[in-house]
Amino acid sequence: MDALPRALLLDLDGTLLDSEPSYKRTEAAVLLELGVDASEAELDGYTGTPLAAWLRRVEERHGVTVPPEAFLARHRPVMEAEVAERIALFPDTVALLDRFPGPVALVTSSMRWYVEAVFARHPALAARFGAVVTADDVHRGKPDPEPFLLGARLLGVAPSECLAVEDSANGVTAAVAAGCHTVAIDRDGRHDLSHAHQVFDTLDRVLG
Fold first, then answer.
1. pLDDT tens, 55-105?
2. Residues 139 and 108 in one domain
3. Can you give the pLDDT at residue 8?
4. pLDDT value for 1
């Protein structure tokens, strides 16, 4: 994208928030409690998809039923404590938001309760978003384009005028399908995000 976009559509976990290690570690531990021995490497492939969708894939792979309610009863309190006590914003998050003068939407596959926990910990982050799209707000989550289409609509901006920033393959797929210029953030070089329009290792490079 040569000119400054009219709006930003930003993923949360792994993009703005250094939460993926905690997420994967907690998911693996909770699944083990529920009878599923899923490695963190397997769970990494589900990054960016809503809870119910990736739990169905876990069930298909392992042949064990994992009700979302049972999973959340164990997972939610742990992650709320992680957010409150340990999980931090990446150092380049605030700088990106400060550099961009236009409207910004959060577009995440996480549930509303988790986003509220993050905002309680980081109120300045909450104040910067003109719209918030969570897994609870859409019928079809990433990699479907619906979350990004909704984020653009809530900001009153065409998707083609938005810059989407993602860190997962599923998120990139969703943003590209929505018609957004899509930047992938690959902080550790472990992921194939080559279907994004651009791939950077830091948010500092996103707006040139």
1. 999 999 999 999 999 999 999 999 999 999 999 999 999 999 999 999 999
2. yes
3. 98
4. 61
* E-strand stretches of 108-207: 131-133, 162-166, 181-185, 198-200
Pick out the chain residues at pLDDT < 50.
none
Q: Is 13 a catalytic residue?
A: yes
Q: Which residues contact 117 (CB under 8 A, 6 or more apart)?
A: 79, 80, 83, 84
pTM: predicted TM-score of the whole model, two decimal places = 0.91
Q: Are strands 104-107 and 7-10 parallel, antiparallel or unpaired?
A: parallel
In terms of domains, do 81 and 92 share one? no
Per annotation, catalytic residue among 2, 11, 44, 186 = 11
pLDDT of residue 145: 98
pLDDT score recorded for residue 2: 63
The CATH number given to whatever domain includes residue 48 is 1.10.150
Q: How many CA atoms lie within 13 A of 122 on its CB side?
A: 20
Total number of domains in the chain: 2
11 catalytic? Reply is yes
Q: Which domain holds residue 134?
A: 7-19+88-205
CB 166 within 8 A of CB 184: yes
Residue tagged active-site, from 2, 13, 188, 201: 13
H/E run at residue 105: strand 104-107
What is the CATH classification number for the domain harbouring 95? 3.40.50.1000
